[in-house]
Design a protein that fits this description.
Length: 455
């Protein structure tokens, strides 16, 4: 009989781990998986005990229950096999993280369904001689129906234990300790991060900064650029990694190369003309990268507003909303953070801090984002290499915070300086607004004065 040994030991062990931690998948596989399909004896025993408990008690065993079962119900096995079963369970207990889950699910299910169908066909051979066609049809039909997805959703009672399993976000640090603190370590798997800023404020510099910090952590980054040339983006990475000014890169060519050779992470920069690529274009490209056995730890899209919608809607804002929803889907599918930027409205051009009110139009297309922060730099700020960051949304911690920043576009250097008091800033903003209104009233009165005197 064919068995799962053709896929290797790691595949078989991860399949058993999936059966333990994914109740819905286990229910589905129980219909088609024979413990004998496993090449390794200790995995056969483990699977038998798992399925026996489910049938006997009508419930998926918890780790604690399975510990008890494996401690008390293996006496009839030889000591070596007992030790192998218990050691295997000890290795997988408490950790539900599994690489290549979808591949293991689909491959194992396909293998088992084919074995069940083969068995049904073999049983049909004697029936052919007796012309029992109805029995043959029943056998084949039943075999085809086994293993069909029967997951109706998260079962509140049956999946109780899943709510208490630790699931790692495996966050990528932002390089800003203050932001890492409020996001619990940075940006996690499947999360969409959006920075909102007016034109010329430095959105692309922020994206490069985040990409560089991921590279320093040994992460692989795919940076899509829809506005700048790929070489121009790469130069910004050079400046940010080395601290050399963009204008001095040519003179420092050798030193730069020595520095970037020591970076543990890998960077791929892919350029597309503005409005030529859709999220499907990005997805297809990422799939090719993954097929070449490169793990993808962060995806950067510079920037989301410049993607072409897959389906055009009557209103542009609906197109943008769908693009950001698709970007969130991309983050979930590739199980890594997707970071992009969005243009704010005109009101944000001269704002000292771009708050929720200032980014309302842009925010509509960012509802699905997990983390949204705005970047504002007035003309005075640009001359002083300073600015402000406002945390507009944070699913993993506090928001509505303002931070002063140092920003040097020449070296793509961005540092958080300090947190500002939001209440004090709003009071100052209100006073400044009152002063502007008073000045406008004075100017209007000055223009109207001659007319009033004539009257």
């Amino acid at each position: 009989m064919e068995n799962l040994g053709v896929f290797g030991k790691s595949f078989q062990e991860n399949l058993c781990k999936l059966l333990l931690y994914d109740r819905a998948f286990c229910d589905q596989m129980e219909e088609v998986l024979d413990a004998g399909f496993f090449e390794l004896k200790y995995l056969q025993v483990f699977t038998e005990k798992l399925f026996t408990h489910k049938k006997q008690y009508g419930a998926h065993p918890t780790n604690a229950t399975l510990t008890s079962v494996l401690r008390t119900e293996l006496e009839n096995l030889n000591p070596v096999l007992q030790k192998q079963v218990r050691n295997f369970f000890a290795r997988i207990e408490g950790s539900s993280e599994i690489e290549d889950q979808e591949y293991i699910r689909s491959t194992a299910l396909d293998f088992c369904k084919k074995q069940v169908l083969k068995d049904a066909i073999m049983k049909s051979i004697p029936l052919i001689n007796r012309c029992s066609f109805e029995e043959i049809q029943t056998l084949i039909t039943n075999a085809l129906q086994l293993g069909i997805d029967n997951n109706f959703g998260y079962d509140y009672v049956k999946d109780f234990e899943e709510r208490f399993l630790f699931k790692s976000r495996n966050p990528v640090s932002t390089g800003w300790p203050e932001i890492d603190t409020i996001t619990h370590g940075g940006f996690g798997k499947g999360e969409l991060v959006v920075t909102v800023a007016p034109t010329g404020a430095g959105k692309s510099h922020v994206l490069v900064h985040l990409g560089v910090n991921a590279l320093k952590q040994g992460k692989n980054v795919v940076h899509f650029t829809l506005e700048l040339a790929d070489v121009a983006v790469a130069r910004r990475y050079d400046a940010c990694l080395t601290g050399y000014s963009l204008n001095a890169l040519i003179e420092q060519k050798e030193a730069i190369f020595e520095t970037i050779k020591s970076v543990d992470g890998q960077l791929l920069v892919k350029e597309y003309p503005t409005k030529s690529a859709t999220t499907t274009t990005l997805k297809n490209h990422l799939e090719k990268i993954r097929q070449n056995e490169m793990d993808i730890d962060m995806i950067i899209v510079d920037y989301g507003d410049l993607l072409r919608p897959m389906r055009h809607n009557s209103e542009k804002r609906h197109d943008l909303e769908s693009i950001y929803e698709e970007l969130r889907g991309l983050a979930q599918e590739f199980d890594c953070p997707v970071i992009t930027a969005s243009q704010t409205n005109r009101k944000g051009l001269n704002e000292e801090v771009i708050t929720m009110e200032s980014i309302s139009e842009a925010f509509n297309k960012c509802f699905v984002a997990d983390f949204i922060f705005s970047l504002s730099r007035t003309i005075t700020d640009k001359n002083s290499n300073i600015g402000r960051v406002f945390i507009a949304k944070n699913r993993n911690g506090p928001d509505a915070r303002i931070y002063s920043i140092f920003m040097d576009p020449a070296t793509v250097t961005i540092k958080i300086l300090e947190q500002e008091d939001v209440g004090e800033f709003k009071r100052k903003e209100k006073v400044d607004e009152q002063k502007r209104d008073l000045n406008m009233a004075k100017k209007l009165f000055k223009k109207m004065k001659p007319l009033l005197e004539e009257g």
